[in-house]
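Hi R.,

Here's the input for the manganese (II) ion complex you asked about:
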Amino acid sequence: MIIKLSTQDAEPRQALVAALEEAGLEVRQLQFPFGDFLAGLGTSGPALKKIQAMAGVAWARPAGSKPILAARELNPGGSRVRLGRMEIGGETLALVAGPCSVEDREQIFTTARFVAAFGATALRGGAYKPRSSPYAFQGLGQAGVELLKEAGDAAGLPVVTEVMEAGDVEAMAPFVDCFQIGARNMSNSPLLKAVGRCGKPVLLKRGPSATLAEFVLAAEYIMLEGNAQVILCERGIRTFETATRNTLDLNAIPVLKGMTHLPVVVDPSHGTGLRHAVSPMARAAVAAGADGIVVEVHPDPASALSDGEQSLHLPEFRRLAEELKPVAEAVGRRLDLPETLPFAPNQIPLIRRAMGWGGSR
Ligand code: PEP
Ligand code: MN
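And here is the predicted structure with manganese (II) ion in place:
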């Protein structure tokens, strides 16, 4: 069961913890910006009625198959998740940009500098890659995580990267501002619990065949560990359509907003798999109320080690950002884009190459 506390006093809280333990339930004390809660995990049986009548209880609900902590009604105004200088879920749109995979120092530093100068709010890049083929590039692992952080620091951007194993969370955590749970791992509950315990923001991607109800329940796993900093990411689902890599389910935006108070972002790169479809679908997502966009960007997509065909060239990212701005404003959101490019002259050769003016890297 989940109990919402009506007081911060220690005495009723202790009595409630004791009552939950006496009923054989595993107790979690959860403090969120939208309230203090106690979770009693296990079969509560007759204990619920007794607890509902105890002091300090605003309400007590039996656990069932529906999310409780992630449910919209717990924070009807919507939750915000801080990432670097911005809060995802607020008025300003988040732009998370970067390569599918961290490949080498030059690739990630070039991308980081450019996307920062072009208005990104966070740098993404995978180091542990869940590839469909075991023969495909699997990522640089921990070295890639550390390189991503170095590049993010150099560009002044927080970093988002995927974790695939619960056992990696601890080693990665000092270098990660936001853990990504990939689509293939959305229902990996030990991994969800591990990122929940670690307390850092989590970008939770929707499984390719997960219903929205299952998606929100995956977020509930993270929240039950005391971590409410969860951002939901729609990234396309598997349908009968083969013209696109996935079918980007924009229905998910308004429907999730009704189901949960968590911020919702959209990844049109994996949602379409097609570079030319990324910007139009990003605009559609913002028009439909997304709190941000996650997009793959590469200095030389033709030579990318993963997902090159859906990755934007660096100048295309700037164009995407410029095209998103009026859409954001039309739906009452903001997108603050830097107007000048603050590059030192000694960086120009790098810029030329990245812009495709000086050949490939
Ligand atoms: C990715 O972000 O590069 C990725 C592998 O995404 P997904 O888990 O959505 O396929
Ligand atoms: Mn990718």
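One thing worth noting: The chain is about 35% helix and 15% strand.

Cheers,
M.
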